[in-house]
Specification:
The chain is of the alpha/beta class. The chain has a single domain, classed as Vaccinia Virus protein VP39 (Rossmann fold). It has helices spanning 10-17, 25-35, 41-61, 81-88, 101-111, 127-131, 134-139, 163-171, 192-203, 214-219, and strands at residues 67-71, 93-98, 117-121, 147-151, 179-185, 225-226, 232-233, 254-260. Strands 1, 2, 3, 4, 5, 6, 7 and 8 form an 8-stranded mixed beta sheet that branches. It is globular and about 50 Å long. The N and C termini lie far apart (39 Å).
Length: 262
């Protein structure tokens, strides 16, 4: 695995926004360029992380999920999925999946010593390879419900790659009662010129972003039961009660929700 320090990485830009140190100058430059028109980008990253934490805690504490597969996991940071899961269920299993060499190197160094946790290489565009990974098979029992996390990752998949079909192929081997958590970048409410500037910066990174609104994101979850309150701005999502957002929810620039496999 070769880490490319000359091209900005989405995982490292996200790490920078969250105050991490696993990023390069090219990542910081890209992040700052985005912030020229989207100054709330770091706050949006934190809002997405908080949504992930609420959703995982709900699945672990309320839905009884004891095993999670986090696809497009990104770099380790505070409030990792396995930490939330183990706070509720110390014997819970978590498998992190990513195709970014930086994530794999740092993730394995920091997380492989944690109980019942693994970091594997996988690409969302090749679902069957993810599900057939030997290490994943060791930790995930496909006869029991699974929490599949697709947080801030599907917007890297263009329509031409049929993201709905990719989700369906990931969900297919999961048993009834499994849940899928999704968050997705959305430009709704932004000035068109600001959108073009931010997306232009993203196009020069390793993975450009495709914006999708609530109805488009819901369409990626065809065949699943989307839980209340549906696909909403992520600061508005919470079970049993949504949190009270302190700012305009649209400033999160992410929509998301949780769905259950019947």
């Amino acid at each position: 695995m070769r880490i490319d320090p000359s091209t900005a990485s989405p995982a490292r830009i996200y790490d920078y926004y969250l105050g991490g140190k696993d990023n390069y100058e090219v990542d910081r430059a890209a992040a700052e360029a985005i912030m020229k028109t989207v100054p709330e980008a770091p706050a949006a990253a934190r809002a997405n992380r908080a949504f992930l934490a609420r959703a995982v805690r709900y699945l672990a504490a309320q839905a009884g999920i004891r095993q999670f597969v986090d696809v497009g996991a990104g770099l380790p940071t505070q409030g990792n999925v396995h930490e939330i899961v183990h706070d509720v269920s110390p014997d819970g299993h978590v498998v992190y999946v990513d195709n970014d060499p930086t994530v794999l190197v740092h993730g394995r160094a920091l997380l492989e010593g944690s109980p019942n946790v693994a970091v594997i290489r996988g690409d969302l565009r090749r679902p069957e390879e993810i599900m057939a990974d030997p290490r994943l098979a060791e930790l995930i029992d496909f006869t029991e419900p699974v929490g599949l996390l697709l947080v801030a990752v599907l917007h890297f998949i263009p329509d031409g790659d049929d993201p709905a079909a990719l989700v369906a192929r990931l969900v297919e081997p999961l048993p009834s009662g499994s849940h899928v958590v999704v968050s997705h970048g959305y430009e709704g409410g932004m000035d068109p010129s600001d959108v073009e500037h931010a997306l232009g910066v993203r196009r020069r990174t390793a993975a450009p972003i495709c914006s999708r609104g609530p109805e488009q994101v819901a369409a990626l979850l065809t065949g699943l039961d989307i839980l209340d309150p549906g696909i909403v701005w992520i600061p508005e999502w919470g079970l049993p009660h949504p949190p009270a957002p302190t700012d305009d929810p649209q400033l999160s620039h992410f929509v998301g929700g949780v769905a259950r496999k019947p």
